[in-house]
Design goal:
28% of the residues lie in helices and 17% in strands. The protein has eleven helices and eleven strands. The strands form three sheets. The protein has a six-stranded parallel beta sheet with strand order 7-6-8-9-11-10, with helices on both faces.
């Protein structure tokens, strides 16, 4: 079976492939549980990443790690490594593939109802983040490029992105997504792009809206708005009041903000209406913003 690394920055494996088992959650306990059934793990590329901090080793006792990477500084840096391989990843895998034995019977794939769970939450108002993202991506073509700075909603963006072109800043940092989406559109000959961005992240670089309008770039900015910096709250001690982490007094009107910079926007509050709004924004031929109020937790 093949897992995606936690918080991966790009597509790593076809989601439709029978060996695909989804992305590992960025939590030490979840990673240990997922890797526990195996004798050895081939880690390709960089180290496994967790955020926020969760204690304990990522690799269970008794599981060997074989690590292939182009970066010598990654070998043995975090995980005890039984075999470290340094070289170009693509060339190495292409050289190894002919040496593999004939295909063995595929391990059983646990049934997943990720899609059904999302649709079952379409009635929630404010929208459940899972339902909001599912409906948003359901309204997009299968090859639509996605720039993801949804942060606490990002797991759903990755889960429902399928085999679309996908861009994420694995190193962290807020505010890169909206301007990055403009760059992706320019790099793809001004083709349409969707940027899924949290409200807190959007406040770091809203001037990207003006640039999108000035250049008439067909970028759909989908702001998943829970009116707070939830990712930061989750990394702090519970039960305390941390000033500056809520964006509700006053709340930010992202539709008005976009319109003030020349980008038409729309507020969509029900998951059942999101796909239609997405399709309209995608086919508009210029920048558009969709504000999606989601549940606070």
């Amino acid at each position: 079976p093949v897992f995606g690394a936690p918080l991966r920055g790009a597509p790593v494996f076809p989601h439709s492939h029978p060996l695909w088992r989804g992305d590992l959650a960025p939590m030490a306990t979840a990673i240990r549980e997922a890797l526990a059934p195996f004798e050895r793990v081939l880690l390709i590329g960089e180290r496994l990443l967790v955020y926020p901090y969760s204690g304990g080793p990522l690799v269970p006792d008794g599981v060997e790690v074989l690590h292939l990477t182009a970066d010598a500084g990654q070998l043995g840096r975090v995980h005890a490594t039984a075999l470290g391989l340094l070289g170009d990843v693509r060339a190495s895998l292409e050289a190894l593939a002919p040496l593999l034995p004939d295909a063995a019977p595929l391990p059983p794939r646990a049934p997943s109802d990720f899609d059904g769970r999302a649709r079952g939450r379409y009635g929630d108002v404010p929208m459940h983040p899972m339902a909001a993202v599912h409906a948003l991506l359901d309204g997009l073509p299968g090859d639509a490029p996605i720039v993801d700075e949804a942060i606490t909603t990002g797991a759903y963006v990755r889960g429902f992105s399928g085999d679309r072109p996908y861009f994420f800043n694995r190193g962290g940092g807020l505010g890169w997504g909206m301007p990055a989406a403009l760059g992706v559109s320019l790099a793809r000959d001004r083709s349409p792009v969707v940027c899924v961005v949290g409200d807190g992240s959007a406040m770091y670089s809203p001037q990207a809206l003006w640039t999108a309008a000035h250049e008439n770039l067909p970028v759909v900015f989908a702001v998943v708005n829970n009116r707070q910096y939830l990712i930061l709250k989750r990394n702090l001690k519970p039960g305390k009041d941390y000033p500056g982490l809520d964006l509700d007094a006053p709340p930010v009107d992202f539709v008005a903000l976009a319109q003030s910079m020349g980008v038409p926007g729309v507020l969509v509050e029900k998951a059942g209406d999101v796909a239609e709004a997405t399709q309209a924004a995608w086919s508009a031929g210029g920048p558009r913003l969709i504000e999606l109020p989601i549940a606070a937790s």
